[in-house]
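User:
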Amino acid sequence: MHWYVSSIRVSLLRASLYCSSTLTPLTGIRTIQCTVKNFAIFEETFLYDANVTTQYVTLPSPLDRTTPLEVLISITQFYAFVTVSLAGYKMITSGGVQKLQMISLLVNVRSKPVTDDASDDGKGKKEKDGGDKKFRKVAARLVSGKFTSMCGLVRSGNDDLICARRPNNQESLIIESDASTRSCFVGTNVLVVGVSFIWLFANSWHVTSTDWIGGLAGLVHALTMMELALVVFLVYMVKDAGDLVRTAFKKKQFANEIVSNKNKIANVESITEEQYSWLVDGWSPIWKGGPSASVTPATGDKMITKEEEAVASKLASLSKNVSEEITDRILVQSKMSLLEGYREYVYLLINFFAFYGYLACILVYYFDDESQQPDYIRAMLFWLPNADADWTGNAVGDFAWTVEPLIILGSPMVVKSMSSASEEKQKKD
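Assistant: Predicted structure:
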């Protein structure tokens, strides 16, 4: 069985992982090596001679059957074990649990009772902002969520009446907390994938031919866990691709509305966090940068206030006029988002082939007696003999994950060139 060539893709984590900039090239090299072995390319060279390996290191049986090509494969397998495991751990901690703690802190900061002097209708704040209260309210909603404009009067410990503002609809915080929860969930699956790579590394050295670390059964169980994790990645790839396509159309519609309204925003009060980010070419609330040890209840309130002031000032400027340069940029970015969405669907198709290919190898192991295989298993294996289904499944999976890194590495250059061409066309128009 060709278990040593099995691999898993985690470039789904591109947005946060994360180590994709270094993992993707190594993933490509590893799957290229596996494809070379599958098709016995350069079979007459030293790459397939185990004696070359034993010239440099003395190994017990059956490890002494390890060829130089398998040594090269094992290096990339071990690299994946380290980097992917660390990436999953960081997603769970920094991108998940710690960020949720930070969001909770900020919610408590903005939900705490404040004196009447600091209430929403206080003149001091309005004078400090030096601008329209309308923009300050919109900024507060974008930065830290929407709060009720009315205060509930309650008595403090010294019987003074104070204003207790309560969160009404902290939409932006909920969105970010959902993203953090997703980071925990996906990170757990990434960690499972990373740890499973140790069995692939061991198999490259024929360790799984022994009863160490579970033997062949341990390897198959690890691959099964990787396949289950890949199902999660495939689901999120469908969601992410759909989000990118929808975002592309929303960007185009938003830019066209501004142009049709004589380069002005029709309703500043209803602007969303997403739309504001498009206008300023990339913006996110302070907590999206990740957890920070310097954020305390005291500093958190100051950070939010400062951010709100900056956003309010920018909104006041944008409400007067949105330049053609901004709308042209949004239109160009909408085209890029559409292309990225279609590219995600290509990744989805490639990864589905890889998933199904490696799944065939697992099915062959669990249903090794062809005469006893259920009809649905025979159908899933396309009625191939077990040996052919095993080899074909690995070949398809390895080839798919050889093509994908090439697309990942090459697509930014294509997108950049298309972006430049679109910008030049917009200028000419």
